[in-house]
Amino acid sequence: MSNPNPKYKLKQIYDKPVAEYPVAVKLPVDLDAYVRSLPNKSEWLREAVAEKYQREVGKN
Q1: By the 8 A CB rule, do 53 and 59 touch?
Q2: What is the spatial distance between Cα 51 and Cα 14, in angstroms, rounded to a whole number?
Q3: d(CA 37, CA 45)
Q4: Looking at the chain, which terminus has fewer C-beta neighbours within 10 angstroms, N or C?
Q5: pTM of the predicted model, to two decimals?
Q6: CA distance 15 to 3
Q7: Buried b (16+ CB within 10 A) or exposed e, 5-27
Q8: How far is CA 13 from the centre of its chain?
Q9: Which helix (H) or strand (E) holds 49?
């Protein structure tokens, strides 16, 4: 689906390219409630996934 209002484009805030499509997951109820209570859910989730990736793969 294209942007219905191209006047308001999302700004790239990362120094690396981002995927074209989002990743979606279902979470346990308690974790879901916590994440949804955060003021910046997306950024928190990106950081959490990046930290886990760095631990497992050892990339920076």
Answers
A1: yes
A2: 16
A3: 12
A4: N
A5: 0.69
A6: 23
A7: eeeeeeeeeeeeeeeeeeeeeee
A8: 12
A9: helix 41-57
